Amino acid sequence: MSNLTITGSQSTPAISGDWDAGILTMTGDSYPENSFDLFNQVIDWVERFLAEARRPLSLELHLLYLNTSSVCAIMDVFDLLEDAHGGGHPVSVNWHYDKRNERVAELAEEFKEDCSFPFAIVAHD
Q1: H or E element in which residue 6 lies
Q2: Per-residue pLDDT tens for 18-43?
Q3: What is the rounded CA–CA span in Å between residue 61 and residue 86?
């Protein structure tokens, strides 16, 4: 199918979806003016991938800050992954963070509590 590329800005994460590799990456801060416009593209891409691809999907997060509407959008993505996992589709999340920023680790931990699919919280120096 097609890759997803959204250029990041000061208030939006850089987002790339590699269809062939089955990897969706988000990097940066997320406090867009309209999170629906930003994340609707991501949700559409994930839905298409899960419906059409017969291979694993990995979400690689390098998010530093999320506002409330971004948290809701990420929850929507995780709901899609949870449904896919329940249907036998292999999915996973790796949330990377700087170990000096415990706030990000705590946020990732809150998300992880609601997920039954593989979800790793990865600290980096």
Answers
A1: strand 4-6
A2: 999 999 999 999 999 999 999 999 99
A3: 22
Handedness of CA 15, 117, 45, 31 (dihedral sign): negative
Q: Is 22 helix (H, G, I), strand (E, B) or coil?
A: coil
Residue 97's contacts (CB-CB under 8 Å, 6 or more residues apart) are: 62, 64, 104, 105, 108, 121, 122, 123, 124
Output b/e per residue, 75-103; b: 16+ Cβ within 10 A. eebbebbbebbeeebebbbbbbbeeeeee
Domains of the chain listed by start with CATH number = 4-124 (3.30.750.24)
Please count the CA atoms within 13 angstroms of the CA of 10 that sit on its side-chain side.
0
Per-residue pLDDT of 77-113, as tens digits, reads 999 999 999 999 999 999 999 998 899 999 999 999 9
List beta partners, residue 121. 95
Residue 66, beta-bridge partner list: 30
pTM metric for this prediction: 0.94
Does 1 have pLDDT greater than 80?
no
